[in-house]
Amino acid sequence: MRAAAVVFALLLPDPLLAQTACESRHVIAQGETFLSIADQYYGDERRWAGIFEANQTVLPEGDLDLLVGTSLTIPCLPADAAANVTPPQIEEVEMKILTGSNYAPFTDRNWVGDGMVTELVNAALEATPDPVTYAIAWEDDWSQHLFPMLDSGAQFDMGFPWLRPNCEENPRNERCANFHFSDPLVDILVLLFTRADAPVKFDQDSDLHGRTLCRPKGYYTHDLDRADRQWLGDGVVTLVQADGPEACFDELMAGSVDAVAVNEFLGWTKIHELGLQGRVQPEQRPVSIEGLHVVISKKHWRGTTHLYRVNAGLKALRDTDRYTEIVTRHLGTFWERLH
User: Fold this and answer.
1) Is the entire prediction scored with pTM above 0.90?
2) What CA–CA distance (Å, rounded) separates 260 from 267?
């Protein structure tokens, strides 16, 4: 089972409202959406991710559409932002894992629990049926992680969190050719952020034909060219690769591009930092849903064994309420910090 898509989620600001509007059942009626249900129970449609997370066992995998008559759980979202997992700090360990900071809310040493994904990795390795001693190291220069620090398998055993390209369609991609990927730790939405006074209709792929998108240099493009979508290959969409996310939003506000295509968290963070609230908005339909994974080099002599530990631990974690608790707590922290 894939990890649930993480999307605009806010913790309830009023504890009394949280007590009275959650832990109930809701039967889906015609025309309802996650947004309308979240508005009904929480008073804010942006909080729908908590409902999505809590109902993965009754929803089609990776599907945001609702089937009339399905009974949903309306969860209480935890208000305690304290992390309950601490990475072990051991000198001699059997597994050395590499990550980096400045990727909040996923991995960041200035974030609660060192980030959502860091806490999920710790919890999964704690839950694995075949645990080993391990330690997490931090290198904030992400450009050094895959090559050379992880590729040889000598300096570090595994690293996280990394996007997995479509390796079935493009096995020659350097990540696909050189690394094994765990099951997804969490899925995130890649959205189109557009000007409020110039929204972009995006009900189907052809709606973007003739449009210009912006994405920072060095970012992935595999979601723009795939088997069912050849936006760049066919030349029907123009991609501007700016020097950074801030530059992309500058291009958007100047009218040079129609939309900025980045993950939801980066988009909302830049809206907040650049003072663009009310002037920039996300379009509801995602460009793609991208998983964040643990990677291990195909050259690593214990690669499949270590990968088994991660995947088995993730499965055990998802079989409990702890997975959802960790994700929803970090989502709440993210939104609290933007206000």
Assistant:
1) no
2) 8
